[in-house]
Write a structure and sequence with these properties.
The chain is α+β, with helices and mostly antiparallel strands. The protein has 15 helices and 14 strands. The protein folds into two domains: 58-79 and 299-407, TonB (TolA/TonB C-terminal domain), CATH 3.30.2420.10; 80-268, no CATH class. 47% of the residues lie in helices and 17% in strands. Helix 2 (9-25) packs parallel to helix 9 and helix 5 runs antiparallel to helix 8.
């Protein structure tokens, strides 16, 4: 998985940069709801970049030579293991922070609220409670979903403000924004080492709130917009944890931007949304086509097999005592996870001296997996020549086979 994550960085970063620029510069063209919809491109681009293909197995025609010396044990350990540990620690840390943020909402005293006491009708499946820990309403959880109100909600806000605030939360509820937030946090956990993912997560949450504002204030009067802005200001007394799945009405950080957008709301032409949709479809098509073309690779130009764990064969005691040198050519495959398989002896000089030790060692070797278009590939029919040499002046090493002929 760690190789797959690294292989996604270019396309992921490029898509995030495009959306971040659109989020900053394209609001007047697409509107808040249009910008929020653009974030759907991130998972779609990754899916397009990982469409599987039915290519023939890749054959690597190169012959690799490796010298084995007596009384020597070597381990060539790559950085993949340490990278896996580092990634796992970071991803786990993000998950723990997210869980803690969710727990903080539920640790206060909560009491049920009769929905009939509220100024608008709420869905029956939406549970409503009051909490003494929050100063702004929020939708918590995914299934079931709970609307949590501050314990002074009805006394602090006017009836019209209550209506507007509750409609805002209903937009989150009906749009399944908490599920979207969970998916966004999963992206942060998986790609936490990429700085762009943190910028994108913050921008995504801001876009989410702005889209809710636009939905609530569509065709509203100027007075209602003013009351809504006042309600936002009343909610800025607190700002909940940033890395959480719940959607909070009164998050402090984007408040000024939200009020400015309310003041400068413009009508977005459907033509603009159509242009954006066509552009997004074109981007996905381009990524998918590039992904498939990238997998059509000349077998003579694939990256060389790179060992990350290499256990040196032991030099046979009798051969060392008799000062016998020799070579063994082995053919093998590399699986998707970098393990060796289907090991066969192609040629050995002398016969039946070094073959057994060579196969036993090669079974323990680990290679960097072949990644093409984000997919790990099986590599077939690789060749390695293990040369057993003694002393200060070993005999010359030469390839035992013509690699092209042996594979035809």
């Amino acid at each position: 998985m760690s190789n797959w994550i690294l292989a996604q960085q270019v396309i992921l970063s490029m898509s995030l940069i495009v959306i971040l620029i659109a989020e900053k510069k394209g609001v007047s063209f697409l509107g808040a709801k249009g910008i929020y919809s653009l974030w759907l491109l991130v998972p779609l681009v990754l899916m397009a970049n990982n469409i599987p293909s039915n290519l023939l197995p890749i054959n690597n025609m190169a012959l690799y030579q490796y010298v084995v010396k007596v009384n020597q044990t070597s381990y060539v350990a790559g950085s993949l293991l340490s990278w896996k540990i580092l990634w796992f620690v970071g991803a786990t840390g993000v998950v723990i922070i997210a869980l803690k943020a969710q727990w903080q909402i539920y640790r206060g005293q909560q009491c049920s609220v009769d929905p009939s006491q509220l100024p608008i009708n709420l869905p029956k499946r939406l549970k409503v409670v009051e909490s003494n820990l929050i100063k702004a309403p929020l939708i918590a959880g995914i299934w079931p979903t709970t609307l949590i109100l501050p314990d002074d909600f009805q006394s602090r806000f006017t009836v019209q403000q209550q209506q507007l605030i509750l409609q805002h939360e209903l937009v989150h509820f009906r749009r399944l924004d908490n599920l979207c937030n969970l998916i966004a946090i999963m992206f942060v956990a998986v790609f936490w080492f990429n700085p762009l993912i943190w910028l994108a997560y913050s921008a995504f949450r801001n876009s989410q709130e702005l889209a809710c504002d636009a939905a609530v204030l569509n065709n509203r009067s100027q007075l209602e917009k003013i009351n809504y802005s006042k309600a936002l200001l009343l909610c800025t007394q607190t700002s909940g944890p940033h890395l959480s799945v719940y959607s909070q009405y009164g998050a402090k950080h984007p408040m000024l931007l939200r009020i400015q957008r309310i003041k400068n709301q413009t009508v977005i032409k459907k033509r603009n949304l159509l242009i954006a949709a066509i552009g997004g479809l074109g981007l996905l098509t381009t990524v998918a086509m590039a992904n498939q073309q990238g997998k059509v690779v000349d077998s003579t130009k694939v990256n060389e097999a790179t060992p990350i764990l290499r256990v040196e064969p032991s030099y046979p005691i009798e051969a060392a005592q008799q000062k016998i040198e020799g070579s063994v050519v082995l053919q093998f495959d590399i699986t998707e996870d970098g393990s060796t398989s289907n090991i066969k002896m192609i040629k050995a000089e002398p016969q039946n001296v070094f073959t057994k030790n060579s196969i036993a060692a090669l079974q323990k070797w680990k290679y960097k997996p072949q990644i093409i278009g984000g997919q790990a590939q099986i590599q077939h029919n690789l060749l390695v020549q293990l040369d057993y040499r003694l002393g200060e002046n070993p005999s010359p090493i030469r390839p035992l086979i013509e690699t092209v002929k042996i594979l035809q």
